[in-house]
Amino acid sequence: MTPPAARRSPAELGPLVAIFSVLVAGCDSLRATVVEHYPSGYAPTAGAAPVPGAAVAGEGAPAGGGAKLLRRIGGIAEPTDLAFAPAGMRTLLVAEKGGKLRRFDLSGPEPVEREPLLQLEVLTRSEQGLLGLAFAPDFGSSGGALYFNATRACSNAGGCTQVARVQVQIDGERWTAGAPELLLEVAQPYANHNAGQLAFGPEGALYVGLGDGGWRDDPQGHGQDVATLLGSMLRIDPSRAEGGKPYAIPADQPKITGAPPETWAVGLRNPWRFSFAPDGRLIVADVGQNRWEELDLVAAGDNLGWAIREGRHCAVEGADCAADGMVEPFYEYPHADGDASVTGGYVYTGAALPALAGRYVFGDFVSGRVWSVPLPADPSGPLVKAELLGRWQILPSTFGRDPQGELWVADFGKGDLYQIVP
Ligand SMILES: [Ca+2]
Question: 309 C-alpha to center of ligand 1: Å?
Answer without folding.
Answer: 6
